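Researcher: Go.
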Amino acid sequence: MDEELISKKELLELTGISYGQLYRWKRKSLIPDEWFIRKSTFTGQETFFPKARVLSRIEKILSMKEDASLDDLADMFSPDCGSLSLDRDEVLRRGIALPDIVDMYAELSGAGQEFGINDILCVYLLSRHITSGDLSLPEGRTMAELLKEGLIRFHGSACDLILARKLGVFFCFMTSPPCDICADSGFRVIAKINIPSVIEELKLKLI
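Model: Structure:
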């Protein structure tokens, strides 16, 4: 599942932003360092970006920068959510997850009535991928167990969650990019989930 890239020149032309804006946003951590990918081309070294993610991020920056400072936007886009927590009713009220998913996760994890940010992230992903048909309930439990451990290990760092199957057997694992996956033809990736992007979605729901 190689991600489509866009060159710096194409990005600046497509979005209408300047070289100076792009690198100012980089210095302010609005665009992560790891999105600046140096590759060799026939003209020498050029900078490329993950196309879908960088275009989405720039669109959000441009739409929000009049109402928020760059520091506020940097906090919005940061993968670190600090000590945020919500009770069960608030998780449901904000449409983060369905009641059955919240109750299943609470029973599995012992979260009780209070959900920390890692718990909120887990129920959000569980609800999204179980209701879409990507995962069965037992597979969802496996994913939740992995997420609970992986989010502690990768705390505050960029990471991806990979959901896959081979011969009907479910696999899930977490990686820290850049990480390319090469697997045999029987290994089917169901979803590659960028955790910072999901946290960003959640923050927009929680503000």
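Model: The mean pLDDT is 86.
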